[in-house]
C-alpha cells in the first residue's frame, strides 16, 4: 500500500460552482439583457432579447428521483436538440433551450416518445415539489415519490395544457416539518397520536433536557420507569408535532395508526397581487393508503376542479377562496368545516373574522 | 419508460425482492421512479445492483407497513463536518445490502444550469461509488446523490470535488442556497442572482462545511417579487429583486395588448387586479401608473410582459426570518432592508457585509435549535435592528403597533433621528456634522 491510500485528500473548497461555464451560449450572451417572453404553446417559452436573439425553452416533467440511465437519456436528448445544455426548475422540471424554432416540435415529439410529458408552464398544474419519504427520510409518515407519481398521473392533463385560472403549485410533505413547502394545495402527513416511548432506550439515546426543550407545548418531562431515567409525555397537552422524535428516536411518532394525511389550500409564494400567504387546512384525517392514496387523490381532484370551474383568470387558489369565502369553498368541494379548522396556536385571533363580513 | 436503455439481463429472479406495492406505481402517464429503481436493480454486474435490490425491498416493506425504516448517524468526509446525510437501515437483517444508504448533498450551480457533459460525469461518479440514484433537486436546492456506503463516501466526494463540485449544508449550519433562472433568461430579473448567490455562499463556506451555528441558516435569491425560489417563506435571509424608479411602459405595446386581448379583459385582469389601485387605462388605450402607490408586486408586468417592465434603478430587498413549521409554527421573512442597490462590486460587497452581520448576530444570540426568525420574535424587532445596525422603516410593517404597552420616554430623540436621517437622504447637512 502506498502512502497515498492512507493520506486523505484535502477537500478543495470550491463552494458554489460557476454557472456561466454550463449556461447555454445564447443565455450567456444575453445575460441580463432580455426584453420579454411569451408562450407559443403549453410547455414552450419564447424569450426575446434586446439584442434581437430568441431562445425557445421546452419544459418537461421528470420523476425527480432519477436513475443514472434516465439522466443519461435526458442528456442524449439535450445533445441532439439543445446543444448539450439543460437546466432544471425549482420544481424538478427539465428545460431544454434552443435558438432554432424548427427544433421545438421534433424535441416535443422525442420527449413524448421517451415518456417525459411536456408542460408545466403558465396556468398549468406543474410538477409537485416534494420530500424524500420512505425512500430516504428518517422521520417520514408516508412516501413522497409514490404520492407524487399517483397525483401527477391524475393531473397529467392539467400539466400538459394551460387551462387553469392561474398557475397551481402543489406540494407534498411526509411529516409536519413540511419540507415540501407552501402550495396552492399542500398534502402533508398529520400525526394524530402522541409519541410511543420505548423507555428502555431513552436514557441511552437521548439528551433528555434537549428533548424537553424541543417540545413547543411543554408536554414532555423527565420521569423514571422501572428504575430507569426516561421521559414521559402529557398526552392531553401533546399536539403530535413530532419535534421530539429527531433528537430522541425512542419517542416514535410514526405508526400505521397515527399517520393521517391533511390537505391544505391557498398557500402562495409570489408577491403578485396579494402578499405571499400560508396554506390553510381544508381537510384532515385522510387515510395514508399506499400505493395509490385514492382518498387523497379524490379530494385533490375535487379542489382542482372547483377552482378551475369557478376562479377568475389570474386568481390563485387562495385569492379565489378569499373572494368567494370559505363557506362556499367548503360547499363547492363538499368538505366539512369542523372545530379543528379553528386555529388555536399563537396569533390565532388574527385568523378569525373580526368583522361583520359574511358570505351566504 | 419501461424499456429504457439499461444493461441487459437481471439478477437471478430468486434473488430479486418482490415489490408488489411498488409495481403498481409503474403505470400511468407520469415518469415512474420505480421503473428507474428497477433499472438500477437490474443493471447486471454493476456494484450497486444488489444495493438497489435491497433498497426496493425495504421501500416495498415500508409501503406494506406504512412506516419508514431509516435512522440517522454520523458520517462525514475528511476536513468537513457536514454535507452527508447518514442513513442506516433499521431492517438491515432483511435487507443487508442497503444497510448503509447515505446521501451526499452537493451544491448545484446557481439557476440549475448544466451541460450534458458535466451531468454525465456526475452520473459516472455515482455509478462507480454510489447507488446510481440522483434527485434533481432536493428541497434546499441540492443535487442529492442518494445511496452511498460509509466506505465509499470519501471516494465519491473526492471524485465529485475533482469535477468542481462541493458539498452543501446539513445540520446546524449555513445551508445550500437556491437562485431562480434570473438574469440568464428572464426579463424580470432585477440583479445578477447567480453572482450574489455565489459571492455570499462562498464567503461563508466555513459555516457550511464545519457546522457551528445554533441551527440552520438559509439564503435564497429571487430576481423579482414573483419569488420563484420561494425565498420569503423558506429562507432565513431572502434576497428579492426590486426597483425604485417607475415601471417602464411601452405605450404602443399597451395598445397592442388591448387590441389583442380586449379592453374589458385588460381592465379585469390588469387594472382591477392591481393590489394598490395604481393603474388606470386611458381612453386612448394607453396606460397610466401611479408609481408612488406601486408595491412592485409584478402582477401587471406578468400579464403584459411586452408592454411593462421593471424600472432602471434596480436592486434588492432583504427579508429575514422565514421558516416552516418546526416548532413554533410558520413564519415569513420580515422586510428588513427595503432596498440595497446591487450593481457595482461595492454594492455586492455591502450585501455580503450585511449578511455577515446577520450571521454573526445569529451565531451569538440564537438559542440552540432556534431559527433567526424565532430569535427576532423572542427579543423583538427593535433589538434585532439595533444589533444589525438598521434603522426602523415603515416598509417593515403592515401597520404600526396597536398595543400601548411600550416605554416611549425617548420618543423625541428617536423622532429627531428620523428627521435627521430624512434630511441626510435629501442631501442636507445635519447639525453637528
From TrEMBL, chain A:
Residues 229-258 form the 4Fe-4S ferredoxin-type domain. The keyword Transport does not apply. It is an enzyme of class 1 (oxidoreductase). Its EC number is 1.8.99.5. GO terms for cellular component: sulfite reductase complex (NADPH). GO terms for biological process: sulfate assimilation. Keywords: 4Fe-4S, Iron, Iron-sulfur, Metal-binding, Oxidoreductase. It comes from the Bacteria. One of its GO terms (molecular function) is 4 iron, 4 sulfur cluster binding. The keyword 4Fe-4S applies. PANTHER family: ANAEROBIC SULFITE REDUCTASE SUBUNIT C (PTHR11493:SF54), SULFITE REDUCTASE [NADPH] SUBUNIT BETA-RELATED (PTHR11493). This is Dissimilatory-type sulfite reductase subunit beta. The gene is dsrB.
Amino acid at each position: 500500500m502506498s502512502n497515498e491510500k492512507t493520506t486523505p485528500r484535502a477537500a478543495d473548497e470550491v463552494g458554489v460552482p460557476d454557472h456561466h461555464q454550463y449556461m447555454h451560449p445564447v443565455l450567456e450572451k444575453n445575460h441580463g439583457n432580455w426584453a420579454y417572453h411569451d408562450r407559443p404553446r403549453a410547455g414552450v417559452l419564447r424569450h426575446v432579447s434586446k439584442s434581437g436573439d430568441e431562445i425557445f425553452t421546452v419544459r418537461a416533467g421528470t420523476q425527480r428521483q432519477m436513475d443514472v440511465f434516465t439522466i443519461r437519456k435526458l442528456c442524449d436528448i439535450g445533445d441532439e436538440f439543445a446543444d448539450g445544455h439543460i437546466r432544471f426548475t425549482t420544481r424538478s422540471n427539465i428545460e431544454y433551450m434552443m435558438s432554432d424554432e424548427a427544433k421545438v416540435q421534433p424535441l416535443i415529439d422525442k420527449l413524448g416518445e421517451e415518456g417525459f410529458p411536456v408542460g408545466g408552464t403558465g396556468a398549468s398544474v406543474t410538477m409537485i415539489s416534494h420530500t424524500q419519504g420512505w425512500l430516504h427520510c428518517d422521520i417520514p409518515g408516508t412516501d413522497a415519490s409514490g404520492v407524487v407519481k399517483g397525483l401527477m398521473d391524475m393531473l397529467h392533463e392539467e400539466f400538459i395544457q394551460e387551462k387553469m385560472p392561474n398557475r397551481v403549485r402543489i406540494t407534498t410533505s411526509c411529516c409536519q416539518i413540511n419540507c415540501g413547502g407552501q402550495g396552492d394545495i399542500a398534502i402533508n402527513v398529520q400525526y394524530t397520536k402522541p409519541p410511543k416511548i420505548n423507555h428502555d432506550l431513552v436514557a441511552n439515546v437521548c439528551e433528555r433536557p434537549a428533548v424537553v426543550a424541543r417540545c413547543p407545548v411543554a408536554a414532555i418531562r423527565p420521569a423514571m420507569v422501572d428504575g430507569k431515567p426516561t421521559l414521559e409525555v402529557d398526552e392531553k397537552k401533546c399536539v403530535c408535532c413530532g419535534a421530539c422524535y429527531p433528537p430522541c428516536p425512542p419517542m416514535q411518532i410514526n405508526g400505521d395508526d397515527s399517520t393521517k394525511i391533511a390537505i391544505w389550500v391557498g398557500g402562495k409564494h409570489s408577491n403578485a397581487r396579494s402578499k405571499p400567504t400560508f396554506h390553510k387546512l381544508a381537510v384532515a384525517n385522510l387515510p395514508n393508503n399506499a400505493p395509490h392514496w385514492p382518498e387523497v387523490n379524490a379530494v385533490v381532484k375535487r379542489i382542482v376542479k372547483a377552482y378551475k370551474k369557478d376562479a377568475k383568470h389570474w386568481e390563485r387558489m387562495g385569492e379565489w377562496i378569499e373572494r368567494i369565502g370559505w363557506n362556499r369553498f367548503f360547499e363547492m368541494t363538499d368538505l366539512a368545516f369542523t372545530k379543528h379548522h379553528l386555529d388555536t396556536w399563537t396569533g390565532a385571533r388574527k385568523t378569525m373574522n373580526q368583522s361583520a363580513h359574511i358570505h351566504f | 419508460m419501461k424499456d429504457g436503455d439499461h444493461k441487459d439481463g437481471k439478477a437471478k429472479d430468486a434473488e430479486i425482492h418482490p415489490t408488489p406495492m411498488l409495481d403498481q406505481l409503474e403505470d400511468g402517464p407520469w415518469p415512474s421512479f420505480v421503473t428507474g429503481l428497477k433499472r438500477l436493480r437490474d443493471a447486471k454486474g454493476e456494484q450497486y445492483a444488489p444495493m438497489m435490490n435491497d433498497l426496493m425491498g425495504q421501500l416495498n416493506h415500508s409501503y406494506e407497513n406504512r412506516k419508514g425504516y431509516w435512522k440517522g448517524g454520523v458520517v462525514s468526509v475528511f476536513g468537513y463536518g457536514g454535507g452527508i446525510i447518514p442513513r442506516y437501515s433499521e431492517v438491515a437483517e432483511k435487507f443487508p445490502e442497503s444497510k448503509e444508504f447515505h446521501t451526499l448533498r452537493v451544491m448545484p450551480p446557481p439557476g440549475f444550469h448544466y451541460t450534458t457533459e458535466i451531468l454525465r460525469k456526475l452520473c459516472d461518479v455515482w455509478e462507480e461509488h454510489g447507488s446510481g440514484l440522483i434527485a434533481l433537486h432536493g428541497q434546499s436546492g441540492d443535487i442529492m446523490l442518494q445511496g452511498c456506503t460509509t466506505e465509499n463516501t470519501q471516494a465519491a466526494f473526492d471524485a465529485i470535488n475533482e469535477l468542481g463540485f462541493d458539498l452543501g449544508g446539513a445540520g446546524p449550519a449555513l445551508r445550500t442556497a437556491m437562485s431562480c433562472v434570473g438574469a440568464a433568461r428572464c426579463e424580470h430579473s432585477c440583479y445578477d442572482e447567480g453572482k450574489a448567490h455565489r459571492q455570499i455562499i462562498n464567503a461563508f463556506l466555513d459555516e457550511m462545511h464545519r457546522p457551528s451555528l445554533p441551527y440552520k441558516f438559509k439564503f435564497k435569491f429571487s430576481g423579482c417579487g414573483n419569488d420563484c425560489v420561494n425565498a420569503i417563506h423558506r429562507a432565513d435571509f431572502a434576497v428579492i429583486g426590486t426597483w425604485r424608479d417607475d415601471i417602464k411602459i411601452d405605450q404602443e405595446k399597451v395598445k397592442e395588448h388591448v387590441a389583442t386581448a380586449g379592453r374589458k379583459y385588460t381592465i379585469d385582469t390588469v387594472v382591477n387586479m392591481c393590489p394598490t389601485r395604481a393603474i388606470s387605462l386611458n381612453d386612448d388605450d394607453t396606460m397610466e401608473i401611479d408609481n408612488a402607490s406601486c408595491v412592485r408586486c409584478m402582477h401587471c408586468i406578468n400579464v403584459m410582459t411586452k408592454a411593462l417592465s421593471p424600472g432602471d434603478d434596480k436592486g434588492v430587498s432583504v427579508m429575514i426570518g422565514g421558516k416552516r413549521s418546526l416548532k413554533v409554527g410558520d413564519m415569513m421573512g420580515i422586510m428588513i432592508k427595503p432596498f440595497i442597490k446591487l450593481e457595482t462590486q461595492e454594492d455586492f460587497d455591502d450585501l455580503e457585509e450585511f449578511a455577515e452581520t446577520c450571521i454573526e448576530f445569529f451565531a451569538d444570540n440564537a438559542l440552540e435549535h432556534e431559527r433567526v426568525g424565532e430569535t427576532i420574535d423572542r427579543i423583538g424587532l427593535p433589538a434585532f435592528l439595533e444589533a444589525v445596525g438598521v434603522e426602523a422603516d415603515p416598509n417593515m410593517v403592515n401597520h404600526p403597533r396597536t398595543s400601548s404597552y411600550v416605554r416611549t420616554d425617548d420618543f423625541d430623540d428617536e423622532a429627531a433621528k428620523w428627521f435627521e436621517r430624512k434630511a441626510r437622504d435629501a442631501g442636507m447637512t445635519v447639525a453637528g456634522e
